[in-house]
Amino acid sequence: GENVEQHPSTLSVQEGDSAVIKCTYSDSASNYFPWYKQELGKRPQLIIDIRSNVGEKKDQRIAVTLNKTAKHFSLHITETQPEDSAVYFCAATAAGNKLTFGGGTRVLVKP
Amino acid sequence: DTAVSQTPKYLVTQMGNDKSIKCEQNLGHDTMYWYKQDSKKFLKIMFSYNNKELIINETVPNRFSPKSPDKAHLNLHINSLELGDSAVYFCASSQVTGVTGELFFGEGSRLTVL
To answer: Which of B5, B35, B43 to mutate to probe the A interface, most A CBs <10 Å?
Structure first.
């Protein structure tokens, strides 16, 4: 089955700096890669996703890149703000299979 | 107008008891899930139902029994609760089978076993 590794497990950045979270996956058949944000005490919510036919996707201050050959994908947050503080999860799935989550990255943005 | 709602939000109980968590979605989705989030925040799928049919059944103790009376509801019953069952349980739904679309999570049910 799919195995998703996520790094780092914790990330502390100064407000205004960039944050990068990296994930690797094992199943070369995986073709859908979402990112979820979970604020303290809240539910995980989708913030951005990318499919295997796309190398990069951007939505305002967040962007995701995918390298299918190397089987890794990354989340980039620019100009971080205190409200970006949360746990971020990457995930991967192949069609018809279950979504497998990475272990999560706790991001702390210091004002 | 909560899309995915689950009850109760908090559950504190003694070891050995039996408890249930209920979930309902009003999004018209065909697929529903139960996820377990442990103290280290790791999210792990337990079960998935598509239109009342069980399609994913991970390696979960058989003390956990899901039940889907219709495609809008997915309940989780847990027998003989153990300390290690303490976690937050999230219900979720998605529009398509196979999870190539967004997962909509409920608010979570925090289970504490004493």
So the answer is: B43
Nearest Cα neighbor of B90 from B105, B102, B101 is: B105
Contact yes or no for A96 and B90 at CB 8 A: no
Residue with tokens 């939505």: A59
Selecting from A46, A100, A101 the residue whose C-beta is nearest the C-beta of B102 gives A46
- DSSP letter string, A4-67: EEEE-SEEEEETTS-EEEEEEES-TT--EEEEEEE-TTS--EEEEEEETT-SEEEETTEEEEEE
**A44, A59, A50: which is closest to A25 by C-alpha?**
A50
Instruction: Please name which of A50, A6, A52 lies closest in space to residue A29, comparing C-alpha atoms.
Output: A52
Token pair, residue A17, equals: 């700096």
Tell whether B39 lies on the interface with A, counting CB pairs under 8 A: no
pLDDT in tens, B21-68: 999 999 999 899 999 999 888 999 999 998 888 888 887 899 999 999
Q: How far apart are CA B44 and CA B61, in angstroms?
A: 14
For A13, A54, B40, B112, the CA distances from B23, given in Å and listed in that order, are 37, 35, 24, 18
Is the CB of A32 inside 8 Å of chain B's CB atoms?
Answer: yes
With CB atoms and an 8 Å threshold, state whether B43 touches A44. yes
Reported confidence tier of residue A11, pLDDT bands at 50, 70, 90: very high
